[in-house]
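Minutes, project check-in

Agenda point 3 was the complex the collaborators sent over. CS summarized: two entities, 720 residues total, and the question is how they sit relative to each other. Sequences were read into the notes so everyone works from the same version.
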Amino acid sequence: MSISRSILVSLALLPLAAPAWGQAADAPKGTLKIVSSLPRTGSANAQTSTIVNGIKLAIDEVGGTVDGWTITYQDMDDASPQRGNWDPAVEAQNANTAARDESIVAYIGTFNSGAAKVAIPILNRAGLVMVSPANTYPGLTKPGLGEANEPMAYRKSGTINYFRVVPTDDLQGVQAANWAKDLAVTKVFILHDRELYGKGIADVFKKQAEKQGIEVVGFEGIDSKAANYRSLVTKLKATQPDLVYFGGTTQSNAGQVAKDLRSGGFEGKYMVPDGCFEQAFIESAGAENLNDRTYITFGGLPPEKLTGKGAEFCSSYKTKYSADPEAYAAYGYECARVILQAIAKAETKDRASILAAVAGTRDFDGVLGRWSFDANGDTSSQVMSGQIVHDGKFEFSKVLGN
Amino acid sequence: MIDFEVFVQQVITGLSNGMIIALIAIGYTMVYGIIELINFAHGDVFMLGAFFALTLLGALGMEAWGPGGQTIGVIAMLIGSALFCGSLNWTLDRLAYRPLRGSSKLSLLVSAIGCSFICMNLGLFWGGVPMEVFAGGVASAAPKDFPAIIPQTNLLGGAFIRITPAEVLVFAVTIPLMVALTLMVKRTRLGCAMRAVAQDQTAAALMGIPVDRVIGATFFIGGALGGFASVIYALYNNTIGFQMGTRAGLDAFTAAVLGGIGSLPGAVLGGLTIGLVRSMSDQYLETRWTNTIVFCILVLILIFRPSGLLGSTRKEKV
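CS then shared the predicted structure for the full assembly.
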């Protein structure tokens, strides 16, 4: 009786014990999780899908493991159908989820600068590193360029946990105004969408335009939910500008502005920042309203102009997904690679040492050339490019600045 | 000289936008006049009308038709969307409002808000239909480009003041509709029955008027006007999206209240007022103040004339 019982007991324990024996030989040391928080509902989806693909590509390239640790990835959505755009409530929820889950060691995002403002303080408290592929509002990292308490308000713990691989708007806005000068613009009417990113870059553009001797004949914030901007177009047309600059994104109605400029009889040029550098902008505006009159600035190079590592990225992206990457895909890929390299370098695979390793990224051989993170968490890369719309497609026009 | 031209242009723009708002406002005011319900779903029915029109346009390949064919296409879209929105509004009444007719006004209101959400989500799904006109349906929530089959060129040639065929269409569709509606309410048997039901449902029923059928007809007509509005909105602005009903509905509801909810001429006056105030505020103040101005005017009017501009204190509605 007692023998049969002990056999029974050991039989019962067998299935529990078996996996442990199996693992002991070639067991991964554990799982580290990377998450991204990007707007996946709404028109930004086309762009963010390629960012997510870029991230997945980077993880696949290392076979999903670093230093014997399994890397998993979760793609979170920070948009809500009600807004069709990023939503502060959802972004805060994503950041809180990530902060609570101890297995998460890095947070890729956000797409919109306004969303970063929500997420950074939450993640800062949790000591979780955040790397953005697309935020360009300067105040998130650079003292003196945003509000008085920026960026210190995001760094309550005393450590910088926010980094970005894109050059900021204080550079992009300046280059945009310089480009306008090159295009022989003498009068500009500036519009913005009253959001953090749009208003921010419009302010920079205005300052530099004035410095360049371009007359600023108007500066107005639009209602990004309005049905049309006919009245505004009449008003701006009466001031006879050669260029209308719109600080905003596809999601804050850059397409409708383009339509109303044309149907309102404005004949001049239209310039927009990188928030509109996506196919969805052309689709929402209608190609005939943009062709040969629309200028787009971008903090980086378009995929087809990348060289070295960047060109390699483009070809492996095309092979894997049989589609062309959108402008920000390379940045998604870059974010993931920075994080993977930091995980490899970190001694202990916890949040603090991975954060320190990301902060210590120097001379990184990336798709955007060789660059380092500076003390604020900004990239040292300053490559900018200008695009025009021709025949319903973006066409590379020139490299801006130095 | 240019100042005067700018003013004239703003009046034209304001009236065009106002006409579209007025047409939607009539739908609110008719339903309110007859059963004292603010039909929150009306703006979203309007939005679905625009999606229906775009689907029709894509399915028939209207973009490739010549100018003559496109005129027929526009008429087809107007009639199709009007029938679609009218039937949808009638169905909402049948399924979601009529069963609650005996209960409190509040349950009716909550039901209307629910219908609004259902319609909005239908629009979200609709945007994902894999058709070329929906940009392949890849991003269902993205705004959709509505082809400019009514051109936006200037009929006055190179002059500063612009009147486009799209603007002419706005006036050519809305004014006859408003006249026809007024005549219908004033002269026809159905109009007479509607006024009777609005005054006193019980008495109307006692006089042999089929109350539910008259209410259903009111929903149908209000919805149909929303359908017409959706097509001219789409042809005028060239962009539609599943959220457009919220803003358009809010503007139209404000117009209806401003003019005196329950009053047909009031809705038209309210719509035109809002359109003009928006234009003038965009021109002479700043765009960012426009919404503030519109709602300040609403508050002031409600303080000094609680029943709206043309609302009467007498119990005579529709």
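Noted in discussion: The longest strand of chain B covers residues 144-145.
Follow-up: revisit at the next meeting once the mutant set is ready.
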